[in-house]
Amino acid sequence: MNASDSTDTGRLDGNVLGGPLAELFAADLTVAIVACVHCGDQAPMAAFQVYADAPAFVVRCPGCTGVVMRCASDPRGVRFEMTGVRLLSVEAPPADET
Amino acid sequence: MSHVSRGFTGRRRDAPAGRLPPGQYDVGDGFPVLSAGPVPYTEPDEWDFTVQGQVDQVRRWSWQEFQQLPREPVTVDIHCVTSWSKFDTRWEGVAVETLLQDVETAGEYVLAFCDGGYTTNLPLDDVVDGKAWVVDTYDGSPLVPEHGGPARLLVPHLYFWKSAKWVRGLALNLVDEPGFWENFGYHNYGDPWKEQRYAGD
Amino acid sequence: MERTALRRRLTWQLAEVLAVTRETPRVRRIRLRPPDWPGHVAGQHVDVRLTAPDGYTAQRSYSIASPPSQPETELIVERLDDGEVSPYLTDELRPGDLLEVRGPIGGYFVWPEHADTPVQLVAGGSGVVPFVAMLAHHRTSGSDVDVRLLYSVRTDADVIARDELRPRPESAVVLTFTRDAPADWTGPRGRIDRELLVRHTAPPEQRPAILICGSTPFVEAVTRELVAIGHAAERIKTERYGGMGDTS
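Structure tokens for the assembled complex are given below, as produced in the milestone run.
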């Protein structure tokens, strides 16, 4: 599941992106399937590596550690880039959900 | 700004006037490690440093060759954009102008590149004339990987994100190419005394 | 399979702190009343934001410990000595304070309401908190899901949510003590390793839905072992906490 040998303790995962991304997107993207542009691997965003103590969240592929997204959220606002995402897929909610 | 959390001050401490740029605090004995990715581990026999790009000829030093270059101790204050500052940090290394000695270039900009893929850009003028070093020693000991070892760039007059960890070389450019944080909305130059944290500041 | 549902906009709100109680020497349980709480799913978290007088802010995420059926929202927070937020929450926060929170957040690491295979929870130290909510919800909702928890903790004094995690017929809770077990302890000892997992977790043939929570080293070591034992990687979900987690 995780090809990286390093288990740096400061590292978190995509679960922590739920709050900051909710400032931009109505859908919960932590369950979206994200394809890494560097290696092509796919996983739910929650399973991606998040380095959270730099000036911004840096999101990396659990397979190849390439940067897929960066997100900074502070009282000034939100900055978000996803140039490392080849594709992001969100399943439609069931018909009976609003 | 609306709510203030009763009794929360962050890690702030007062510091001697004049040494702290605006919006900074003195971190004292601490030395925070802020990482944007996994720590690279590069052995000396794998390491080299190159000066490349808009140059007459690529220069390259192995670790042994780098150790033979003239070096000097450097004691400076450093200022991180996340607002901590640390006074009188002691380093040792090679001045960048030593590495650029005899290099012929029309380039006015450098892009520092590093193990792990990090980059940061600076005007050439800001890494010469005693303003920047490639350092491999901190506080009298070899620089540890968590803090950028085996060698990092040290450019104390700018925010510390310009002092690139795990540096492996400088590419001289005719044009200014934004690096990792510069193309994510951080200031292209980064003068802590003008509080140039974000683009547009 | 998760669905992502459109929901109303998530904003910061000021929750009243109702109580801060001691759970273990380093852990506090914080009971909150957010003014506009839509209800939550067990496993979700909140973001907590602290603001200093000069405008400096610090923000962290904390799992919700209370089940959806409980009207007041509870967090359980471990003090990280070099933390920026947790020492404030464990040492300074008092009833009557206002705490800025955002939530509930997260649709990934949540209780699998309609699981048709066993649900295996594995926790290291304070990583047990989302499972406290899940087990309480399992009990109060009368769920017939076969749920088990393997919980690694340093010593008896470090056990969180002792009451909620009391062994019950409907949920198998197994503790392992990594530093010091109680004098009369006949259960597992030591860090969670392959042998402990083989002995105390649902085997791969049962195709359990696995949820692992704790420090990054803990979560990744346990994941590697479970995959080595034969569990499919797609059946494993993880949530990583900051800090060293359950290390001696």
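The helical segments of chain B are 63-67, 96-99. Residues 25-29+47-194 of chain B form a domain with the Sulfite Oxidase; Chain A, domain 2 fold (CATH 3.90.420.10). Further analysis is deferred to the final report.
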